């Protein structure tokens, strides 16, 4: 019995104080006690690593059990449960340590390879740029000042620019007014931030229009306003002339439908539908660019100045849109997947597989890696986010980024390596509702004059003031204010202990804890309930009744009044969190005249450096917290100085200042946009269209003219044929309304195209002839990994004319050809030069050749031997934007995921894939792919992706999945492609196919195994009706 009572007390201490109290309250070792008990031993030995806050509820129920025997049995079961949790956590920790060690080794190996590759073209004086040594050109401070001084700060001089900016925030409920912040985990601070950023940017000089893209939701679960296609946020700059405000100027929310139209989905379920959003957003941007060109661009399209993705899902989207349009991309992570994964693994409650199943965390991490590949600039709130969070990613290395930047500044070759720039730009705030008051008795410190109800006309006070003051015996004492969720990470219990154990502080001040809203603690989540229960116990332990306020409810509109109340009493705001990513409440408090005491871990360091309005403390040091609070509350001169400093510098966190810094940083990026003339010369185009339109009218109306009694039908047909076959400067794609893209990856065991593809193409051609009315409006394209020379020979072998296709996408998306248009004198096709320049961005073929050869032909497997060769260069299939290799030993081939990781760690950005039945590996530029080539055709020739139909097999090359989803229609032919290359795509533990491809989409149809024209036509009709094509 006594042993079980001891267990009860020990569990109570664990649950009240957490793991940090274990060492202090640890009982004597079990061997020193005469009444050794195995249960006690397990508790003593393993519970120190357990932080299972949801055990609290179980423990409450157990100790309330009246039956002594049952209670003892349950307590012992709890101890065994703790032991099991600790064992599981230890196992996960070992796996995590191994993973971190492997990653660290891979990182160092990558740095070593980069140093070797880049040291060849350095002079002796430049050898100091190695990754193992610091760059000694300038001190960090001088270097920063010099770099920033070279950047022209955004000002009124840019008023004539008239920029178009695109922001993207996909998940949650986004609207301009009456935002439902806190409705769910997806509708939080990020929503407020992006809406306010859009408004603020539209008011900046030189910005004409800002579009904030999000998801359109037409569901009974949410308000009807989320189904509106567009919503105006502001008309533009307040001081702009009427001539500057065009019909499309201002800031707008643009809602793009994607995924199930009638369902509101949490962000983890949006991943398979990302491609659909990209195509929808691209259509809006193309149309808007044309409209803006007519308004302010002298007839030429006004392309987005920058595309800015917020969070991982929008970052993935922005990367694809940036590649399709060839415009710069900016990324703000808000919160990062790798950081969350690390935290969840450290808790030891879930395995990596369980975490991935719940949060789709690996898909999120890959989206963030892709965003780093494409981003010119990454905006963070703090330096801590750069070093401790982005530093976890394959695509960003702080040391390598500094070296590459130094080399680029001196014009030294980086061999195609790139790291995005990181810029710390704190979030902006709207201070319009904040009234800065002077230091006068009437302004603050005279709460009695405001709350005095004696007399004929008492001053009304806000209701939240009354709610707070009812807890306090003397509400006129300075108020120490803490405002946060009751989360264990916010460290509220340490603050309460510091207050309770410091008598001078208790005598001088009150403590107010605003811990969210609650009705019943028992209905709250385990962690929050545990914190609130501990708070109540500590208040009782230190007898703090009348000195601590902890109201149950408050509205968002009450928060400014709470700050104002604390300022009236000459109080202090405190944020004691163990780690604070940014600390927006610190800025809000400073705006209302409150000095701060804040954690020294994370964002508050940067805020304190800017505002200089308080003290930083170690959140684990209870005495340090008490001393800092007492110092600010007792020393009035210091209090006034901190208050004035906060007010003096608070403008640094205003929206105009944020936008000014933002536009300055964006302007320093490498600007790029489509270089071609989208509108052809008017006279040539008019004549060409006029002639063809006339002929079309003749055919459509079946006009048959007679001259001198002779039937001219035959002559008209001959003339029509001559015009159709006549070489044109512009592809026929410009006149097509629909496009059927054949992308069947059908190859034999040697990687040669299967002859049955010829038959399939012929049947698909027949489908078009079955519908004469749309035959002239429908074109054909072929998308393949083969080079154009091999493809031409293959088509000739099947008696298929190459001019039957309007476009050929060859080399896994590295080249685009237009048969009958872009040809040399000898009839040989040459690739679209605009597409070549379009995908050239960040293409480092020299560095890739050397690195890929080294990585693929080096093996960690000792059995394979040093002479094993996995790949061999395939010159026949290579071109200026495609490195092709023959797979000599498939067992040595590394997965795409593994290769992508290694290349990213070395600063190399590309699109790598296995193709042609796993007999080839091809590497193309980051912006190139077969799916992105379709979007290029849309942007270049205005053939909407939604009017395309892509024909695929059931499997294919490793880029096959990218071709399935989108707004285009997809026809999957069963039984045509027997074997693809997808087994070489993903490593174990990575994201799944279901995270890329929607499981059930009305835009995807299947043939039942036949390839007859009638069956194909039937499937095409079905999918066209489903998508409204």
Automatic annotation (TrEMBL):
Its EC number is 2.4.1.14. Signal peptide: none annotated. It catalyses: beta-D-fructose 6-phosphate + UDP-alpha-D-glucose = sucrose 6(F)-phosphate + UDP + H(+). Pfam families: Glycos_transf_1 (PF00534), GT-B_Sucrose_synth (PF00862), S6PP (PF05116). GO terms for biological process: sucrose biosynthetic process. Transmembrane segments: none annotated. It is an enzyme of class 2 (transferase). CDD domains: GT4_sucrose_synthase (cd03800), HAD_SPS (cd16419). Residues 474-646 form the Glycosyl transferase family domain. Residues 164-432 form the Sucrose synthase first GT-B domain. Pathway: Glycan biosynthesis; sucrose biosynthesis; sucrose from D-fructose 6-phosphate and UDP-alpha-D-glucose: step 1/2. Keywords: Glycosyltransferase, Transferase. Residues 774-963 form the Sucrose phosphatase-like domain. Homodimer or homotetramer. This is Sucrose-phosphate synthase. The lineage of its organism: Eukaryota, Viridiplantae, Streptophyta, Embryophyta, Tracheophyta.
